[in-house]
From TrEMBL, chain A:
Lipid bilayer topology: Peripheral membrane protein
Single GO molecular function: ATP hydrolysis activity
Protein name: Simple sugar transport system ATP-binding protein
Main location: membrane
A GO CC annotation given for this chain: plasma membrane
SUPFAM superfamilies membership: P-loop containing nucleoside triphosphate hydrolases
UniProtKB/TrEMBL annotation, chain B:
Protein name, as recorded: Basic membrane protein A
Cell compartment(s), UniProt: Cell membrane
A GO CC term assigned to this protein in UniProt: plasma membrane
InterPro entries (alphabetical): BMP_lipoprotein (IPR050957), Peripla_BP_I (IPR028082), PnrA-like (IPR003760)
Membrane topology, from the record: Lipid-anchor
Keywords, ordered alphabetically: Cell membrane, Lipoprotein, Membrane, Signal
CDD domains: PBP1_PrnA-like
Record family assignment: Belongs to the BMP lipoprotein family.
SUPFAM superfamilies, alphabetized: Periplasmic binding protein-like I (SSF53822)
Keyword Transcription attached: no
Principal localisation: membrane
Automatic annotation (TrEMBL), chain C:
Species this chain originates from: Streptomyces nymphaeiformis
Transmembrane segments: 9-34, 54-76, 88-105, 111-132, 141-160, 196-214, 244-264, 270-289, 296-316, 322-341
GO cellular component entries: plasma membrane
Protein name: Simple sugar transport system permease protein
Subcellular location: Cell membrane
A GO MF term: transmembrane transporter activity
This protein's record includes keyword Transmembrane: yes
Keywords in alphabetical order: Cell membrane, Membrane, Sugar transport, Transmembrane, Transmembrane helix, Transport
Topological category with respect to the lipid bilayer: Multi-pass membrane protein
């Protein structure tokens, strides 16, 4: 295994930054920006950090990779002062430190950009940046000047007076980065920064990171997307099961090698082999329209879809009272077909799912399942009628976290066998069936009486998949079915979906993971601002092309040609 | 039904042993050391009204008659069964008489009186239950209030006077009825503003001065310049408000001019409608001690000075036309020329 | 899995025990601070509870609290906070007393009518809050508090002699008239101790029904699911609005029943002296009993004990308000300790699952993935 260094000898290159800092350094060469040694965190739950050692050189982008649940986030929380390690030492710029709060970390020049942005929508960029940092440069002209300065220095292109709610995801992320820099951070931690971005935006982010690096800042980049890591990182540290298992040189390593190190086995592929698509429609949606609540009556609901889909995009530029969350959606999924929907989150996917499940009531449109109109049928009747549902947020919509597994097995199917008979629950049968699901879907648990909360994300998801599959659905809604799931579970979930498809199931797949979408789907549609704006053939499409369409830059039938780049169309 | 059995067992284990001890009770009227007890109404001792007046009667009996007194307070939200238990334990302990302060003791006294035929039970403000060993101590509050109405109508310059009732119960309605009639009979054109502070079972209207104050301020704003508050402790708030505005207040139950807590407002307390609860308690105890226990309805009215008007404020005594009108009205009521209504 | 079950039991009991012990200690401190002997009143209360008449009072009050607390608990199980139990209880007692006095039917039928009227009145009154919540988004906390206030005025108005009330001759009380003897629920005579209300046993039976409905029916599952995660319940097919209204109706119905032991077993009329405050005490009882029928029974018994065994403390020269202090502290201690125990329990279970999985304790699965 040539690319791996098995022992950790800090490389210590010549310091790229001018020695303006007042710190006295013993070594002739500059010490590493961050050095973690023997970090151990006995954390109640599934994964703990165990004897972690990482050395981050100054002025580099250091990637920290590992599966979900490998312990990356815990480690970063320790570094950012949100949690205290049980053992081990942290050194920043060669000096040993202990952090008892993020404030301590910030004072040491460590800043964190969280996966979920922490911005106030109704404030401007300037206001968001100075919020909580009023003492630094005030809140007026001086602060604006400083923001401009930082923005220009690192090419962030942030406009201080823009309202955050008008900004796209990528812009918001840049505001978050600026916020951290504004507070004097020299070491930036970015937690899965690309998870919310389309490929073009990812590239722009990487340009920003390189800019930061060239200015002497240090970036710690957490990710599990290996291609990206290889593109941007100078050093890579791999974490598995809570401990550092190796480092890699991005110049020589391949994604395959990284993946093997990450999971200890080969990466599964979402690829679907032979087509099982039939010509029997299972679910048909016609003209589904949902207007944002509050101004529902103001917008005419019967506007015919423009013939040219490109024109549809411009329609939205006009001010419409009552934004359309779903705009004249029509689609058909046949038996044995997986229809994938690509799109940046927040473009109507959630609303589409809820409309199909019966959780919201659309203003117009017809939904039929297996030839039967179910447009006005209740959620429960739809589920009984054969709709399976893997929700995008399993904690909010798929589980009762404090309830035991066997009760979670009943959830959503309380009226169906084996869970109940004539209104009376049958706990014995439900428990027995839960044991079967645990067995067949490889849910790792010591028993079915433990609460759902005590399982890892992947095992929770497998339980949900097992539950939904146990009622022989005709139509399965799978929203981000493998989000936050470890690689092993991912493969099993994909297998389950493929098996069901072979058995004639129609599947609506919504995912932010474009590889998953392209790999599993028989048909691809792109959703943008509540509309299905483009169609693509998963056999020929590339993630980049799909990414373009997701920003609204391309519409219609996507072909194998390159699309123009549009980083932040939202 | 296992729980049922457990509940039964719980009671069964102690069967025959009751909190009051059964045989140990000494014969009630043993002459030498009379023990008397009062069971308070909601609010208990310290309400500056009714319960305190009863306590004053007991104290007086302790001092003058050498009686040994006992008291018991109710709990919030108790039922008749709790009152029965309380009265029973007081009676078993050899207290005679046992006095229930307030009409809510009526059903309980009806039960307990049967079990203790040799004990005299006093029941204040109620005549609905009767027995040879029950003395119903009742008052003609409406007559005293009528006189207050006469005073208010005479003393008012604006022709608008106020009535504040603590809680909207029939007892307080008697106050209102007498007062209103007294005002109207004296000055048919006068206007009476009436307000109740709370409704049962919310008895805050007898205990929260801030409620009385707010109500009085409202009436003052509407031009009232004499305010009669029949609201227990809450009435002191009304007195405070009237005093602050330089208007007249009329107190209730005891002579509030003399109350230490109201000393700073006393100049504006024109008079008070007194209700001699303490005297009635004392009289009952005395009658038992003397071996001639009262029984049946014992009515305290104007004729017997069981109710009346206080004249300790010199300002009131100086208003000779007012006092003259009061005297006349009092005579008319005693003589039966005026019949005062008991309900508005 | 015996180990985890035993853990669950210990953790389940830890909350109430922690709450009770800390409230006991705090009460002792309060007594010490006021210069009173802290042990003597407690000894007196325990002594008192040895007497048969106090025991009967305790048992009877337990039944009343139990009914009201079941009403509160069913709301709690789905995160509905029905503070209006007090108002529902009073209005139902009043209306059913009116109806009971107005009709004259053969025994069991008469009782049945009164009980049904009480259930319906309580349910309708609580249902108003349910409808306001589902159609207008009004928090049930706010609306039930308002309804309590309205109840006071409404009952005060209804009971006026010019409306439906009766003022017995010579009394300053107002009542709804006497229910004929056919509408009296027979009790169990305990001799000197008095009578245990027959309806107390109905209350206990309803505890069993409560358990069955919550734990063994689809409806109960939906209710619990809604309480644990409204979003998940909705996604699972629970009609949240229907659920809210149904739960409020049941909650109000049980609250309405809380007035029955006294009405049918003792007072046979609703008067100004009808006990108040039951609905508020019941909230604490339900909290302390963790919304579990057995837990609530013990909590009700404890509160009845505190209430009744302390009633003669003042004769011995101790303020009986110490029980109110104790009850107040229990409320706070319950909230704090349950949250502490819940967090500890979650952490502990996660840890246990982690450990057991690490030790290879997982259920054997079909597919074993290479590590």
């Amino acid at each position: 295994m040539s690319p791996w260094h098995d022992n950790f000898t800090p490389p210590c290159p010549p310091a790229p930054t001018p020695s303006g800092q007042g710190e006295c350094v013993i070594n002739a060469s500059s010490p590493p920006a961050v050095e973690l040694h023997g970090i151990t965190k006995r954390f109640p739950g599934v994964v703990a950090n165990k004897d972690i050692a990482i050395t981050v050189r100054k002025g580099t982008v250091h990637a920290l990779i590992g599966e979900n649940g490998a312990g990356k986030s815990t480690l970063m929380k320790i570094l950012y002062g949100m949690q205290k390690p049980d053992e081990g030492t942290i050194a920043v710029d060669g000096e040993q430190v202990t952090f008892s709060s993020p404030g301590d970390a910030i004072a040491r020049g460590i800043g964190m950009v969280h996966q979920h942005f922490m911005l106030a929508d109704n404030l401007t960029v300037l206001e968001n940046v100075v919020l909580g940092g009023e003492k630094l440069y005030g809140i007026g002209a001086k602060a604006r000047k400083k923001i401009k300065e930082i923005s220009d220095a690192y090419g962030l292109g942030v406009r201080p007076d823009a309202l955050v709610e008008d900004l796209g995801v990528a812009d918001r992320q840049r505001v978050e980065i600026l916020k951290v820099l504004y507070r004097g951070a020299k070491i930036l931690i970015l937690d899965e920064p690309t998870a919310v971005l389309v490929p073009q935006e990812v590239d722009a982010l990487f340009d920003n990171l390189r800019e930061l690096k060239s200015e002497g800042l240090t970036v710690i980049f957490i990710s599990h997307k290996l291609g990206e890591v290889l593109k941007v990182a100078d050093d890579i540290t791999v974490i598995r099961r809570g401990t550092t298992v190796g480092t890699a040189d991005p110049k020589t390593a391949t994604t395959k090698q990284l993946a093997e190190l990450m999971v200890g086995s080969e990466l599964p592929s979402p690829e679907t082999r032979e087509s099982t698509v039939t010509d029997v429609p299972m679910i048909q949606v016609q003209g589904l329209t949902l207007t944002e609540a509050g101004a529902a009556a103001a917008a005419p609901l019967t506007t015919a879809a423009p013939a040219d889909p490109a024109a549809a995009v411009t329609v939205h530029e006009e001010p419409i009272a009552g934004r359309r969350l779903l705009d004249d959606i029509s689609l058909t999924i046949h038996k044995g077909e997986i229809l994938g929907i690509a799109g940046v989150e927040g473009n109507g996917q959630t609303e589409l799912i809820e409309a199909l499940m019966g959780m919201n009531s659309p203003d117009a449109g017809v939904i039929s399942l297996d030839g039967e109109d179910i447009s006005t049928v209740s959620v429960r009747k739809r589920r009984e009628g054969g709709i399976g549902y893997i929700p995008e947020d399993r904690h909010r919509h798929g589980l009762l976290l404090e309830a035991p597994l066997w009760e979670n097995r009943i959830l959503g199917h309380v009226t169906e066998a084996p869970n109940s008979k004539r209104g009376i629950l049958d706990p014995k049968a439900a428990r027995k069936d839960t044991e079967r699901i645990v067995r067949e879907y490889d849910v790792r648990t010591p028993g079915i009486d433990v609460t759902a909360a005590s399982l890892s994300g992947g095992n929770q998801q497998k339980l949900i998949v097992g539950r939904e599959m146990s009622h022989n659905p005709k139509f399965l809604i799978a929203a981000h079915p493998t989000r936050g799931v470890d690689v092993g579970a991912q493969a099993q979930i994909w297998d389950a979906i493929r098996d069901a498809r072979r058995a004639g199931l129609a599947v609506l797949l919504i995912s932010a993971d474009l590889d998953e979408l392209i790999g599993l789907s028989d048909t691809l549609r792109v959703m943008y601002r509540g509309k299905l704006v483009a169609e693509a053939d998963p056999a020929t499409i590339t993630p980049e092309q799909l990414g373009s369409a997701m920003t609204g830059a391309a519409t219609g039938q996507l072909e194998g040609t390159e699309q123009s780049e549009d980083g932040d169309a939202r | 039904m296992g729980l049922t059995a457990a509940a039964l067992a719980l009671s069964a284990t102690a069967c025959g042993k009751s909190s009051t001890g059964s045989s140990s009770s000494s014969s009630a009227a043993s002459g030498s050391a009379v023990k008397a007890a009062i069971a308070y109404d909601i609010g208990g001792r310290g309400d500056q009204s009714f319960n305190d007046a009863a306590f004053a009667g007991l104290q007086k009996a302790e001092k003058e008659l050498g009686v040994k007194g006992a008291e018991a307070e109710p709990s919030q939200g108790e039922s008749d069964a709790d009152k029965v238990a309380r009265l029973t334990s007081l009676a078993r302990a050899g207290n005679n008489p046992v006095i229930g302060v307030g009409f809510s003791y009526a059903p309980a006294i009806a039960k307990v009186a049967k079990q203790f035929p040799k004990t005299t039970f006093g029941l204040i403000d109620d005549t609905s239950v009767t027995a040879p060993n029950i003395a119903n101590l009742v008052f003609n509050e409406e007559q005293g209030s009528y006189l207050a109405g006469v005073v208010a109508a005479k003393a008012s310059k604006t022709g608008t006077v106020g009535f504040i009732g603590g809680v909207e119960v029939p007892l307080i309605k008697k106050f209102e009825a007498g007062y209103t009639q007294g005002v109207k009979d004296t000055n048919p054109k006068a206007k009476v503003l009436t307000q109740y502070l709370t409704q049962p079972p919310n008895f805050d209207g007898f205990s929260k001065p801030d409620l009385g104050k707010a109500a009085a301020e409202g009436q003052l704003d509407k031009g009232a310049d004499v305010i009669y508050a029949a609201a227990g402790l809450a009435g002191s708030g009304a007195i405070e408000a009237a005093s602050a505005a330089g208007k007249w207040a009329i107190g209730v139950d005891s002579d509030q001019y003399k109350q230490a807590g109201l000393a700073s407002y006393k100049n504006q307390i024109l008079t008070s409608v007194t209700k001699d609860v303490s005297g009635s308690v004392f009289n009952l105890i005395k009658s038992v001690k003397d071996g001639k226990p009262q029984t049946g309805e014992i009515r305290y009215g104007l004729a017997t000075n069981g109710v009346g008007l206080a004249d300790s404020n010199p300002a009131f005594v100086k208003m000779t036309d007012v006092t003259a009108a009061v005297e006349k009205a009092k005579k008319d009521i005693v003589d039966g020329k005026i019949t005062v209504k008991t309900a508005p | 899995m015996m180990k985890i079950d035993k853990d669950k039991l210990i953790i389940g009991a830890a909350g109430p025990v922690l709450a009770l012990v800390s409230s006991f200690v705090l009460t002792v401190l309060v007594l010490l601070a006021t210069g009173l002997d802290p042990i003597e009143p407690i000894r007196l209360m325990i002594d008192n509870a040895g007497y048969s008449d106090v025991q009967v009072l305790i048992v009877n009050y337990t039944g009343i609290l139990y009914l009201a607390a079941l009403g509160v608990a069913i709301g709690f199980r789905m995160n509905l906070f029905n503070i209006g139990v007090e108002g529902q209880y009073r209005l139902a007692a009043m209306v059913s007393a009116l109806v009971g006095a107005a009709v004259d039917l053969p025994g069991p039928l008469h009782i049945l009518v009164i009980v049904l009227v009480a259930i319906a009145t309580g349910a309708l009154w609580a249902g108003i809050a349910g409808i306001l919540k589902t159609t207008r988004g009004v928090s049930e906390v706010v609306s039930t508090i308002m309804l309590n206030a309205i109840t006071t005025s409404l009952v005060a108005w209804l009971i006026l002699p010019k409306n439906f009330g009766v003022q017995p001759a010579g009394s300053n009380d107002l009542t709804t008239g006497q229910i004929p003897e056919s509408g009296w629920f027979p009790g169990i005579d305990m001799g000197e101790g008095g009578q245990i209300y027959g309806f107390t046993f109905v209350a206990l039976a309803l505890g069993v029904v409560y358990w069955f409905v919550i734990n063994r029916t689809r409806f109960g599952f939906d209710l619990r699911a809604t309480g644990e995660s409204e979003s998940a319940a909705q996604a699972s097919g629970v009609d949240a609005k229907k659920m809210i209204i149904t739960a409020m109706l049941i909650s109000g119905g049980l609250a309405g029943l809380a007035g029955m032991p006294i009405l049918l077993g003792e007072s046979h009329t609703y008067s100004l002296a009808f006990p108040v405050g039951v609905g508020f005490t019941a909230i604490t009882v339900a909290l302390l009993g963790r919304n579990h029928p057995v837990g609530i029974l013990f909590a009700a018994l404890l509160f009845a004990f505190l209430e009744k065994a302390s009633s003669s403390l003042d004769i011995a020269g101790y303020p009986k308000e110490i029980t109110q202090i104790m009850q107040g502290i229990i409320v706070i201690a319950v909230v704090v300790s349950y949250e502490l125990v819940r967090r500890y329990g979650t952490r502990r279970q996660q840890q246990k699952v982690g450990e057991e999985l690490a030790a290879g304790g997982a259920i054997k699965t079909d597919k074993e993935v290479s590590a």
